[in-house]
Amino acid sequence: MKKITNGIDAINLWVGRIGAWSVLALTLVIVFEVVSRRLLNSPTIWGYEVITMIYGFHFMIVAGYALLHKSLVSVDILYERFSPKMKAILDIATYLMLFFPFVITVLFVSYDQAIFSWSIQEKSSTLFGAPLYLTKTVIPIAFLLLALQGGSEVLKRIMILMKEGENT
């Protein structure tokens, strides 16, 4: 189980680091658009859409990385007082009842949407006509990575319970 969790963690760590670099591209496009608009009085047709697409990519693709590093929102008022065994049980239950149903549903729905978008070569309705199928492809990839990381987290909790069982 440890090899599986390490492998999934390594994938999300790698993808998260790559996703973090998209902020550099985002910053460059924003600066270019601001300079074009404000200093040269010549706004671009494509700037807003490219900024939105890069930000969407960044926001979605680092979800698994955020879960790996426990950067997602959680309410820890009572949780911090529990024993490691109780925390592991509670985590497994919430992953199974709340996390996985949502993530898997979004994964399948977004996959279907991405396939359809590719089949019609969907583009935005603006003059620029950005390819939306690329953006729609990021969503199922991000949710697949998030589901894998959730699986890794559940396996880690199971290992905690197995370790606790050995100590008793």
Automatic annotation (TrEMBL):
The chain crosses the membrane at residues 12-33, 45-68, 88-110, 130-148. It is a multi-pass membrane protein. InterPro entries: DctQ (IPR055348), TRAP_DctQ (IPR007387). One of its GO terms (cellular component) is plasma membrane. It is found in: Cell inner membrane. Keywords: Cell inner membrane, Cell membrane, Membrane, Transmembrane, Transmembrane helix, Transport. Residues 26-157 form the Tripartite ATP-independent periplasmic transporters DctQ component domain. The keyword Iron-sulfur does not apply. Its main location: membrane. Belongs to the TRAP transporter small permease family. This is Tripartite ATP-independent periplasmic transporters DctQ component domain-containing protein.
